[in-house]
Amino acid sequence: MTTAVINPVTTEQIAEVGSASLEETDAAIDRAQEAFPGWRDVAPGERARMLRAFAAVIDEHIEELARLEVANAGHTIGNARWEAGNVRDCLNYYSAAPERLFGRQIPVPGGVDITFHEPLGVVGIIVPWNFPMPIAGWGFAPALAAGNTVVLKPAEITPLTAIRIGELALEAGLPEGVLTVVPGKGSVVGQRFVTHPSVRKVCFTGSTEVGKQIMAGCAEQVKRVTLELGGKSANIVFADADVAAAAASAPYAVFDNAGQDCCARSRILVERSAYDEFVSGLEQSVRALKVIDPGQDDSEMGPMVSAAQRDSVQRYIDGADVAFTGSRPDGDGFWLPPTVVESRSTSEAVWREEVFGPVVAVMPFDSEEEAISLANDTEYGLSGSIFTNDLGRALRVARGVESGNLSVNSHSAVRYWTPFGGYKQSGLGRELGPDAPNAFTEEKNVFIAH
Ligand code: NAP
Ligand code: MG
After folding, report:
1. What are 69-103's pLDDT values in tens digits?
2. Domains of the chain with bracketed CATH
3. What is the DSSP string of 395-447?
């Protein structure tokens, strides 16, 4: 069986990719299981060197990988270069981990007590279509560094960069079976990662709905699981902030990647006394946004990834009271214009649900307490921004918002140096940051009697 891969700008087929069957998935998992003892036992310094070699090969192919992502997912070329570079950077960052996978010596009576961080075995990584390269790298770089082997399922509609990265791993000298990309359906390949007993951990990024099924499935074998799910993050703008700067930057915090971003600040809360100034600044910056061919260097927003995603977002736009929109090019692609809605009620679908497209809802608030309570009035808790020049307020609000990743006077993207993950139904566990390799290990305690 094969899947047609479509370019979202031209809507034409650009590749046909094999879709793994259950038997092929089992065979890939078996090879990863066979490769595990060898990879686990590679000396730490040597594993570090191999990960750096892998990073170097990725670095030599940044432009090729970026162009593939522009063609497959409609990402802007600027973003796509950053995304490929992020895979290289994650590999370099976690290449330091094999030589620093420290245990502890714990004082106990009658002997010596030491702990070890041992790899789990085969790790299954399930990747969505919105950030095919970074999300793959956030999983496989620390997993490989900790001595695990990896099977990775890209989203069915965006497999091209993952397949190429799998080839580059071999070219860089990683042994066969250490990192295997298995393109195919979620219901076949992804589901098999959950049920196959040799897969000892599943890292899933995608919808909250599927994430819950993965978690329930993993419970069957008490399988380790990390979930990175949806978001409905708030961008909170106080009147004491640089309101013009907040309005100029707000579009990039929600329309980046055409809004197909779990961290999108898709709700903007503005203190009432600054509301009119903010909305008029926002209108200017949204109208100026360059929604053009994503292959052009100055493109700021491309099309939606697929016709299905465009239609799903269009339904939210049709059901909302649109204040203003930016532009979109003519032509066949899966384009939508960046769209701003002034929400009157927190019960509106566009205010409550993860739209996952270029639609933002704006609402005024009257007090700091109300801003925090509106921001927290969601089942999600992934990201968010706070604009204020009052340091005390910045800290109070940052501590008050129930969310894993907040930025003050900026919309910082995910940084590989720092932990990333969600509160509430935005996820379970953390990725990235200095502790990520530990999440791919079991901690073993050994007591030695005197
Ligand atoms: P999804 O169904 O959650 O897909 C994410 C990944 O999981 C894909 O690789 C998918 O494979 C796989 N998958 C699907 N069903 C599975 C199953 N039963 N067992 C194991 N793996 C499975 O997301 P979607 O349908 O592409 O998008 C729907 C909505 O999810 C979006 O509109 C958005 O709201 C949200 N979403 C969130 C994120 C995020 O970063 N948090 C990312 C993507 C989507 P296939 O490619 O074969 O379906
Ligand atoms: Mg789905």
Report:
1. 999 999 999 999 999 999 999 999 999 999 999 99
2. 2-229+425-449 (3.40.605.10), 234-414 (3.40.309.10)
3. HHHHHHS--S--EESS-----TTS-B--SGGGEES-BSSTTGGGGGEEEEEEE
Cα 89 to middle of ligand 1, angstroms: 25
State whether the beta carbon of 261 lies less than 6 angstroms from ligand 1: no
Whether residue 162 has its Cβ less than 6 Å from ligand 1:
no
Ligand 1 mutation pick, 72, 181, 207, max ligand atoms within 8 A of CB = 207
pLDDT in tens, 318-363: 999 999 999 999 999 999 999 999 999 999 999 999 999 999 999 9
Distance CA 31, CA 41 (A): 16
Give the number of the atom of ligand 1 that is nearest the alpha carbon of residue 156: 46
Would the CB of 210 count as within 6 Å of ligand 1? Answer: yes
| pLDDT per residue as tens digits for the range 277-294 | 999 999 999 999 999 999
